[in-house]
């Protein structure tokens, strides 16, 4: 005579529901050991599809697309204000492999803002940067700094148009001193003009022209 013993499992039922939800792509909320929270879609036990991640330590929130456990696609990243506790948007745009990649907009402390292209989490490609002092740079970026061709417009409307390297004026360029009605055209190296020509430019409309016009050559 044989005796058949039935095995009882001690695994909680919610474990099975959690596994089923993650593997079937259903929306589900999961808490990490450190308190981080994710609510969204899953694929093969990885965040995949639409979802929202909340980091407990910083309070930061990412809401958007995920691919195999990483931010990938379109999404926004926000952090709470240390004083008001209200959430402030830091970045909205495209991601790839958990880093900013493609077109996006970033808001910096002090009111500065960048809109343009990213690569590997760095400003790269075309972009426009609004600085705290009122200056605006528009042009090419390379590894998070102006590099290539671009224009910098100062708060007094004076502007530089030309080459950039490592965030500094470099190569052929033009500096328009619109407040004085002059134009300098020449060659820059590491933000310093090395040679060129200064001529009157819009002197009659300038708000503070020099006392004497520049003689024509």
From TrEMBL:
Presence of keyword Repeat: yes
Pfam families to which the protein is assigned, alphabetical: MORN
SMART domains tied to this protein: MORN (SM00698)
Major place of residence: cytoplasm
Signal peptide positions (record): none
Gene Ontology CC annotations of this record: acrosomal vesicle
Localisation per UniProt entry: Cytoplasmic vesicle, Secretory vesicle, Acrosome
Keyword annotations of the record: Cytoplasmic vesicle, Repeat
Alphabetical list of InterPro entries matching this protein: MORN, MORN3
Function: Assembles a suppression complex (suppresome) by tethering SIRT1 and MDM2 to regulate composite modifications of p53/TP53. Confers both deacetylation-mediated functional inactivation, by SIRT1, and ubiquitination-dependent degradation, by MDM2, of p53/TP53, promoting a proliferative and cell survival behaviors. May play a role in the regulation of spermatogenesis.
Name of the protein this chain belongs to: MORN repeat-containing protein 3
